[in-house]
Amino acid sequence: SKTRDILRHKVLLNPNDKFFWTHGTNTAKLVSKLKQNACTNGAELEEIAVGLAEKHSIDYPWSQEGWAILRKTYALSILVDETKTIDFDDMILMPVLNNWELPTYDYIFIDEAQDLNKSQRELIKLLTSKQSRVIVAGDPHQSIYGFAGADHRSMQNLQSEFDTVSYPLST
Predict the structure, then answer these.
(1) Residues 6 or more apart from 85 whose CB is under 8 A from it?
(2) 102 falls in which pLDDT band (50, 70, 90)?
(3) How many beta carbons lie within 10 A of that of residue 128, not counting itself?
């Protein structure tokens, strides 16, 4: 993955580094979760990282070295480097972190909204204006993508962030 390549070749600088072989996969998982939660590389990173590691059972070394490696890997992973490669998390996060000016739409339809993460909700905000209508379908009892960063409060967050009206679906 892009994150593992960054960790191995730009952060640790030694392909045989013990940290990479012991914690590389979990570092990459944690960086992905941070991206899905629209985390900036500021003070909130540490608090969010610990919470995400606990929530997703990611065993990470919280030593001084571990923190330094996580911070540097995350900072490099949200930049486009000379390879000009981005991963799926970047496609969602980059417009949000960089506050890109995107076209807005009159109507946005979101299906399976219970499986959105914070970065996806923030991207939706960039794609809407005050006049936009956001139509959401989802069932909070069927949220199954927690492993992929989905926020189990996604439906509640959408209701408050977009001032929605809720209608029950019938079968």
Answers:
(1) 2
(2) very high
(3) 18
